[in-house]
Amino acid sequence: MTDFLHKLLDLYLDAAPWLVLGLVAAGLIKAWLPAEHLNRWLGGNSPWTVLKAALIGAPLPLCSCGVLPAALGLRRAGASRSTTLSFLISTPETGPDSVALSYALLGPFMAVVRPLAAITSAVFTGLLALLTREPETPAFPLGSVVGDNCCSSGNCSNETTATTTGFLGTTWQGIRYAFTDILDDLVLWLAIGLLLAALVATLVPPLAMAEWGSGLDAKLLMLLAGIPVYVCATASTPVAAGLLLAGISPGTVLVFLLAGPATNIATIGVIHREMGRATTLTYLAGITLSSLGLGIFTDLLVNILDINIMAELGNSGDLLPFWLAAGSGILLLFMALRPLPQRLMPGQPANDN
Fold first, then answer.
1. Which of 9, 49, 105, 112 could join 44 via S-S bond, C-beta 3.0 to 4.6 A?
2. What stretches in the chain show pLDDT beneath 70?
3. Domain of residue 295, residue span
4. Is residue 351 in some structural domain?
5. What 3 state SS string does the chain have?
């Protein structure tokens, strides 16, 4: 038990400063990149708009459920199916918070490969959708696309940051959004991921699953596990760290990191209803083929470059002083526990100050 708690604390302190950094970046993007501007940038139906959708969506701080209203808003504003799918995939697969946490827990190689793979997966699927020809389907209200059980906090909306006066006011509201709404969505699954990673590190010897976890069968299993369930990019990172520690290959872990955040039952249902069966099959085929292909390529790249993934795990945490790690951990713990009194006593007025 002592070893488990020690590993859990180490993982948490390694992750905390990078997660704070990622949340700040996500808040700044939320403040200074209003969602309504996306409609103007992503019009058209061409490979260029597919690429733009992937590049613009990648840094946006939206989960796989929160991106649904944003993506359908683009669709209603005239974006093509291919552009909408590209945006719908790249946005939840990566973001500043998940990249920062990947650097802390997965090492620099995976921190670079992960966002590049997310953009590649989105572009591939969008280009695949360019070949799909399907009659337009009737529109339905945006409010009906996301069920209450999709995101843990119920904050999956396409609301833009409220208008405030001045640079500092807008910036502060964006950061406040990141440390309340975004963190509230992450905290439960992030805690579960950290617990699982610490449990694996405690009970499973390093590289114990190396022989099993690098083949196509393992990648297909990760794909089947990741597609139907809801897991956001940031919260999936500690789980990925535990898989790497157990000896699962980086490419196999990447399949999980791509397929898990990009898809879930709610997203599949919405795409089918809004854009038709052929587009839904294109969406699933694009994610399947790109995830498996990128996973295989990643394992090949690790072998060619002789990258020691195990040596990279957790090393980035050693670059930061203990006081910074501890301070970040205390800040995150305080912000995560902030809404607890309101949830335990719903009759009390909320205090977000």
1. 49
2. 33-40, 43, 63-66, 69, 77, 133-165, 204-211, 229-230, 314-319, 340-353
3. 2-339
4. no
5. CHHHHHHHHHHHHHHHHHHHHHHHHHHHHHHHCCCHHHHHHCCCCCHHHHHHHHHHHCCCCCCCCCHHHHHHHHHHCCCCHHHHHHHHHHHHHCCHHHHHHHHHHCCHHHHHHHHHHHHHHHHHHHHHHHCCCCCCCCCCCHHHCCCCCCCCCCCCCCCCCCCCCCHHHHHHHHHHHHHHHHHHHHHHHHHHHHHHHHHHHHHCCCCCCCCCCCCHHHHHHHHHHHCCCCCCHHHHHHHHHHHHHCCCCHHHHHHHHHHHHHCCHHHHHHHHHHHCHHHHHHHHHHHHHHHHHHHHHHHHHHHHHCCCHHHHCCHHHHHCCHHHHHHHHHHHHHHHHCCHHHHHCCCCCCCCC
